[in-house]
Amino acid sequence: MSVRKVALVTGSNKGIGLAVVRALCKQYNGDVYLMARDVARGTAAVEGLKQEGLTPLFRQLDITDLESVRAARDFFKAEYGGVDVLINNAGIAFKMADKTPFGIQAEVTLKTNFFATRDMCNEFLPIIKPGGRVVNVSSVMGSIALSRCSPELQARFRSDDITEEELVALMKSFVKDAQEGVHTQKGWPETAYGVSKTGLTTLTRIHARKLTQDRAGDGILCNACCPGWVRTDMAGPNATKSPDEGAITPVYLALLPAESNIPHGQFVSEKTVQPCFGYSDKKAIRDHVPVGVYGNGFKSGSMRLGKDAIVFTKTRDSMSVGLLSQSYLQAIKAQQIMVPILTFRRDERNIPEDAASLDAILRHSLFNTEKELFTELRTISTAGPTGTRIIIWNLHKTTYGETEFNFNADQYDIQIRANFRERTHECCAMTPDSDYSLRVERKGVGVIGVIECNFLQPTHNKQDFDDTDKYRKTMHNLSIKLEEYWNEIRYRRKKEDPKCTAPIEDTVSCEVEEDLESQEEEQKSYPKPFKRQTKRKLSTAESPPPAVHPTPCTTFPQTGGTLIHPHSSPTSNKQESKLVKMKHKPNANMLEKMEEEKAGFFSLCDQLKCKVEELTAEKDRRLRKLRINLSHLLVPFVPDLNLQQVDFNSDVIDELLDQVIKEVT
Known about the structure:
The protein is of the alpha/beta class. Among the domains are: 6-273, NAD(P)-binding Rossmann-like Domain (Rossmann fold), CATH 3.40.50; 306-396, no CATH class; 621-664, no CATH class. The chain contains 19 helices and 14 strands. The protein has helices spanning 15-27, 39-51, 66-80, 102-124, 141-147, 151-158, 164-180, 192-214, 243-246, 248-254, 326-331, 355-364, 370-380, 425-430, 469-496, 518-523, 529-542, 570-634, 652-664, and strands at residues 6-9, 31-36, 57-60, 83-88, 128-137, 221-226, 267-269, 272-273, 306-314, 318-325, 341-345, 387-395, 405-406, 415-416. An 8-stranded mixed β-sheet has the order 3-2-1-4-5-6-7-8, sandwiched between helices. A hairpin with a 2-residue loop joins strand 7 (267-269) and strand 8. Helix 4 (102-124) runs antiparallel to helix 7, helix 15 runs antiparallel to helix 18 (570-634) and helix 17 crosses helix 18. The two termini are 70 Å apart. The model is unreliable at 278-296, 420-431, 506-526 and 545-569 (pLDDT under 50).
């Protein structure tokens, strides 16, 4: 048995795998095995590298054949006592123009990219030597595919405690749903390759967690990586990277120094950890494991406002400071997202465990002393015993050198700059201020209350709701209620003090009674005056006042010619008022019915808009399919036509096809 170190690369007779073998032969102090399914191609690749002065070795391996995998495992265990570096590079992908049914694509793609790679890991991880490195070549397409999954699926993939059995069940369900043609209805995206890489990245996290639990002292690091868009048979000739450039990150992870303990269980691109799954390290403090990513509401995604932010929070018992800073991470050359968090007790004494966080905050933020931090925390007290204060710097700028947010248009507001392509009069006239302004409450748009909407489904990032029929109806009805509320506020202010010049938006609290049903309004003494006034105007416009029918009168002897009407008594006047009210009541009920019908029409319009969008998408899909089919028909007539360089979603292809057809005819 040899004592030499050994590294093996699957699927390495060409492309990225071949480039990885080339780089390892130059940099790795040990034997490097080029492994391929096809013996002839693998041997030819080895001979080509030997002509470059390199000394790779060859071993046949078909990762989709479990017997082949186990034979390779036994060979390396007997020959080297295990494996030092394992790079799972083998993978396949169908071309976008491929006509193979999607169900078959899903089965074949996941068989190689996920299930076969899982077999490799399960057979080889037990023989990985201490200090070993495992690299799974994944793709950023896995992150993109995950973002297109349903919220339920995203939650399961992102779970910190997902098991390998649960992951395998998810992958099998995708294949089954794809074969039955119901994968989109079940929340899956239209990409078998992307889903396979989502599964592979998740599998990497699971295996890293197992290695930490079962072999904590062995120092084995297991990571997934994205080589980038590389010019291979899979990606085509238009990709931006050469195979040697694509090999940089996998080789970097394979050659991490022996003393390294990070990255581990991460997704790495350009030699940098990418929190594409929304994960980052969490530390248990005083036996308390934080909830979520950091336990305080921080998100590890990109920041749009600026590169750096410091958050001051105060509760009745403690005060905290958190630094969410890209500049800090760059300065310490962090391999993963870290957020220094410091907690003070009410007596302004910090907790000893937070000493490192305090040092990081004072070194890498705008504040250099604890005194300055307390000054900001005391500022919160002016608004109450609890609260939050956020300071952002190194603001994000556009390509024109302007800050993305406009601080100059209004000194009391922060506005989002309109995109230069949208800066037209028509667009500005149609776009509500709420799309650009952070202080739109001055125009009647703001938070006036909180309603429970547990019937709506939030998106995966908790920033919005899924655009469903229930969501659209809810938003429509809320817009009606908000308009009624704002009109009522304005009406009451004008009625109470017609000469008041204070802006309506400065109203801190307006107690407006709940809008009651028509029957309840009859019992309450205070209906909404603005709404009632509007109803009266509409009633008056719809029907004239009811005529009073003539009633018999009595003529008395000539004592002054006096004519007496029975309606002149108080009882008669009350009856007449009641008669008028009865005449008006049907009109009010009719108005309520019209409002309900109006809301129904708006909902129907929303449904029709969605249907139009679906039809448009279907039209685009069929047009693209027609373009692809026509292009394939023209290839025999025009052999120089390179379909890999054609964008079938662009109208330019139509002009190209017209020219080709003219040449052919």
